[in-house]
């Protein structure tokens, strides 16, 4: 199993500063500082809400203080690979709601699109500015060796977590300024500018001048409300709720103390089906009646556009390497994990035979729920899942369990390796780019492969070293 | 600014001020309750506190039978009472959370921390000693929050809505606090103006944090005329009704922009009321009857708050409890 802190049996140069820091303070003192950091998170209010568990819904995501490091070469793979993927996914979504060349060319069966719950037929024929549908894409990446990366899944709807990337850095910077001396760690400060610029790039056709931007939140009871506030604040734009907006003559306005004010670009953190009771759930009070009409009339750009979920489904995932070849005429820079679609009889047969070695996931599931991790499950759990698979094969995909890389965390018993993944956030405006960092999620249970925060995963500060010092 | 943001700032501020004022009322009740009683006279301090807090309707028993225990419970802990200290803190934080992008981190952290600390206090039983410590804590938190607003917020419209929330609430609370004295029975009619009467006025002043100010300003022992002058007409008192109206006039003038009809109407009304209290003499108040004058003031001020909400596009302010 690959531990990212070491190369062979020796410490990697990239971790020399961190190793010295660990030795200087010692794990016990650092655990105290970690408690202090968590108190800082709580005071600032960086919490996420989990409503399934009673008592205090505002919980902290556990923060591990040991940073995770990428050198320039490793980061270049992540960066180019994620950008390539985001470009191909945007081409795909535009194609789905446009000419469907990918179907015409026989690369993907049309049923794959039409039978998908995330496909929104009302979007057919719509063309967003610059043909960008998903302006913010989170690409979940895992690693098995020093230069071997895989994409585990794509998040094209409303990926969350970027606020932790910035706040983890902020807290580390405040508590241990020494670590950042000399500018060896590339800064993450540009995210707000990057996102605001991309939103401006995508102003709608009829925008009467400099576009007015806003961020739509379902409200303070949403689990990611802190992030919504954080991003609105970072960009200096209004944080609006559905009830603050109304549509008149296909133009979206917000209600202000000095009367209605036009909104041109809306970063919405509300799921598709709640956006517009005229088009989706009639009963939704979170959305804005008529907002889809305004969008189609060229008076509003939605970031991300409705219907982008078609591209991040686990069954569509298996086609992404083909998309990259088809739309970009390139070879994938980061590979997919081998994936068996249980709806195909031969692949189902293989899966059933190797169930105890595989990870099985629901096609439309998320958040780490409803999955089977073969190697760590009991025989009874495996048999239970076998029955589910046979009953509804097209609801599942399966993947081999990868030997995910580990990164050391602080524990009361000293340093201990835990599995990690990485979610960089790709922003698409006139350019497609990302900040030099991403969300590192870490499984806190020894041996666990589940890093989701709703399942007790933690986060780490993620460093990208600048070129001139990374190989020192 | 979003109307919802204005609304959130306004109510956040009202609830912070109300928390402080509910604590003051409880403090007044405690002090009045501790006054020596003559020949088994029935006490009505706690009834008067319930009435003055505007909580007669939410109070679970007949307010006439209120005791220190039941009032304490209702005004401190009872979450069904929107004016209880616990409710005020929860509501202030909820409003603050909804408008976080409009707050400085200092203001947000002061409010957020208040709710965290509240949990610790609620583990305690509120006997006399704990209650005092709790009320002191509540005053301290309110001072911290109000001070953070003054010290860190830009003087723009957001600040303006925080200020008008505070002044509306303070005007209402000061009027109610003065009215406590009307509801506290004196043992005998002949006691009016006597030693017991003096002691009661002194406790009202203390609850308004104005006992020392009174001596500085008037150089004599508290009496009805002096206390009413200080808390209604004195333009230097931070708690007087006149100061509140002057500040409302000032803030609303700068919040009102352009030619929005409802805002112009509101501005005309606040200037009318502000000018009226400027020209008011103490004798006018006593000629009308203090209780009647205060009741009318509370109604007028609440009406002004309702007009404000409508003029800036946010929801209706609840009807006042016109007791």
How would you characterize this protein structure?
The complex is a heterodimer of chains A (472) and B (323). Chain A starts with 5 loop residues before the first strand and ends with a helix. Chain A is of the alpha+beta class and 472 residues long. Chain A is built from 15 helices and 25 strands. Chain A has helices spanning 16-25, 27-44, 72-96, 101-104, 110-114, 162-175, 191-201, 225-235, 272-275, 291-296, 314-317, 320-328, 345-353, 379-391, 467-470, and strands spanning 6-7, 10-11, 48-49, 58-59, 63-70, 136-145, 148-155, 213-216, 238-240, 245-248, 251-256, 259-262, 265-268, 301-303, 335-336, 340-341, 358-362, 372-373, 396-400, 406-411, 414-423, 425-428, 432-433, 439-442, 458-464. In chain A, the strands form 7 sheets. A 5-stranded mixed sheet of chain A has the order 5-25-24-21-20. A 5-stranded mixed sheet of chain A has the order 15-7-6-22-23. A 4-stranded parallel sheet of chain A has the order 9-8-13-14. In chain A, a hairpin with a 3-residue loop joins strand 22 and strand 23. Chain A folds into 2 domains: 6-204 and 300-334 and 402-470, no CATH class; 338-400, Dna Ligase, domain 1, CATH 3.30.1490.270. With 323 residues, chain B is an all-alpha fold. Chain B has one domain. Helix content of chain B is 70%, strand content 0%. The longest helix of chain B has 31 residues, at 3-33. Chain B is globular. The model of chain B has no long low-confidence stretch (mean pLDDT 89).
């Amino acid at each position: 199993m690959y531990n990212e802190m070491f190369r062979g049996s020796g410490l990697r140069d990239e971790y020399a500063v961190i190793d010295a820091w660990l030795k200087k303070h010692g794990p016990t003192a650092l655990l105290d500082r970690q408690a202090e950091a968590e108190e800082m998170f709580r005071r600032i209010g960086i919490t996420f809400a989990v409503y399934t568990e009673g008592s205090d819904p505002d919980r902290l995501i556990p923060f591990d203080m040991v940073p995770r490091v990428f050198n320039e070469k490793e980061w270049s793979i992540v960066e180019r690979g994620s950008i390539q993927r985001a470009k191909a996914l945007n081409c795909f979504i535009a194609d789905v709601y446009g000419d469907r060349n990918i179907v015409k060319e026989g690369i993907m069966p049309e049923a794959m699109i039409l039978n998908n719950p995330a496909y929104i037929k009302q979007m057919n024929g719509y063309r967003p500015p610059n043909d960008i549908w998903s302006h913010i894409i989170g690409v979940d990446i895992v690693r098995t060796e020093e230069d071997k990366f895989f994409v585990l899944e794509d998040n094209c709807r409303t990926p969350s977590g970027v606020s932790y990337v910035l706040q983890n850095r902020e807290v580390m910077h405040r508590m241990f300024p020494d670590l950042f001396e000399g500018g060896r760690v590339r800064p993450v400060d540009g995210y707000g500018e990057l996102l605001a610029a991309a939103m401006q790039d995508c102003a709608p056709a009829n925008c009467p001048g400099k576009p007015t931007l806003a961020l739509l939140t379902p409200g303070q009871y949403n689990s990611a409300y802190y992030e919504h506030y954080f991003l609105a604040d970072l960009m200096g734009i209004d944080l609006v709720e559905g009830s603050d907006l109304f549509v008149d003559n296909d133009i979206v306005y917000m209600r202000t103390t000095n009367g209605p004010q036009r909104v041109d670009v809306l970063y919405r953190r509300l799921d598709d089906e709640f956006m517009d009771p005229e088009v989706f759930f009639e009963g939704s009070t979170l959305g804005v009646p008529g907002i889809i009409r305004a969008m189609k009339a060229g008076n509003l750009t939605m970031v991300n556009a409705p219907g982008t979920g078609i591209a991040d489904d686990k069954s569509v995932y298996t086609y992404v390497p083909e998309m990259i070849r088809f739309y970009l005429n390139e070879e994938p820079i980061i590979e997919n994990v081998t994936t068996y679609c249980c709806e195909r009889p031969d692949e189902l047969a293989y899966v059933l035979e190797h169930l105890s070695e595989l990870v099985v996931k629901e096609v439309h599931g998320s958040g780490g729920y409803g999955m089977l991790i073969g190697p760590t499950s009991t025989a009874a759990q495996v048999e239970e899942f076998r029955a589910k698979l046979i009953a509804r094969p097209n609801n599942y995909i399966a993947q081999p369990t990868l030997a995910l890389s580990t990164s050391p965390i602080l524990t009361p018993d000293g340093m201990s390796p835990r599995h990690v993944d990485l979610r960089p956030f790709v922003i698409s405006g006139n350019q497609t780019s990302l900040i030099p960092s991403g969300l590192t999620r870490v499984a806190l249970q020894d041996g666990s492969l589940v890093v989701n925060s709703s399942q007790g995963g933690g986060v780490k500060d993620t460093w990208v070293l600048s070129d001139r010092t990374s190989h020192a | 600014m979003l109307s919802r943001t204005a609304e959130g700032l306004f109510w956040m501020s009202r609830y912070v001020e109300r928390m402080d004022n509910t604590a003051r009322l409880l403090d007044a009740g405690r002090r009045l309750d501790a006054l020596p009683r003559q020949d088994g006279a029935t006490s009505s301090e706690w009834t008067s506190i319930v009435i003055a807090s505007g909580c007669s309707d939410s109070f679970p028993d007949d307010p006439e039978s209120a005791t220190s225990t039941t009032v304490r419970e209702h005004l401190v802990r009872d979450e069904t009472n929107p004016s209880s200290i616990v409710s005020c803190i929860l509501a202030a934080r909820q409003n603050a959370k909804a408008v976080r992008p409009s707050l400085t981190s200092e203001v947000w952290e002061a409010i957020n921390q208040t709710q965290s600390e509240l949990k610790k206090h609620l583990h305690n039983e509120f006997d006399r000693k704990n209650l005092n410590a709790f009320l002191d804590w509540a005053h301290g938190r309110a001072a911290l929050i109000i001070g953070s607003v003054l010290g860190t917020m830009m003087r723009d419209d957001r600040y303006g809505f925080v200020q008008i929330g505070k002044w509306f609430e303070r005007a209402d609370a000061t009027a109610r606090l003065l009215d406590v004295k009307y509801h506290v029975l004196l043992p005998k009619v002949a006691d009016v103006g006597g030693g017991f009467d003096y002691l009661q006025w002194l406790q009202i002043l203390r609850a308004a944090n104005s006992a020392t100010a009174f001596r500085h300003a008037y150089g004599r022992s508290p009496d009805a005329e002096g206390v009413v002058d200080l808390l209604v007409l004195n333009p230097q008192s931070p708690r007087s009704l006149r100061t509140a109206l002057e500040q409302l006039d000032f803030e609303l003038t700068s919040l009102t922009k352009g030619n929005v009809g409802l805002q112009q109407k509101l501005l005309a009304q606040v200037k009318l009321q502000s000018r009226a209290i400027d020209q008011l003499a103490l004798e006018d108040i006593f000629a009308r009857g203090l209780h009647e004058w205060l009741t009318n003031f509370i109604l007028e001020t609440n009406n002004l708050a309702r007009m404000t909400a409508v003029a800036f596009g946010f929801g209706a302010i609840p009807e006042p409890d016109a007791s």
